[in-house]
Amino acid sequence: MNDKDILQHFIFEHAPVRGEIIRLEKSFRTVMQQHQYPPVIQTILGEMLIAASLLSGSIKFKGRITVQFQGKGKLRLLLAQSNDELQLRGFAEWQGELTQEELITHLKEGVLVITINPEVDGGQQYQGIVAWQGNSLAHSIEGYFNTSEQLPTRVWFAVNDRRAAGFLIQMMPEESAHSSQLDHWEHITHLTSTLTSNELLNLDNEKILHRLYVEEDIRIFSPKPVIFRCTCSQTRSENALRLLGEMEVEQELTEKQIIIVTCEFCNKEFKFDRIDVARIFKRGNPGSSTQVH
Question: Residue 180: what pLDDT?
Answer without folding.
Answer: 66
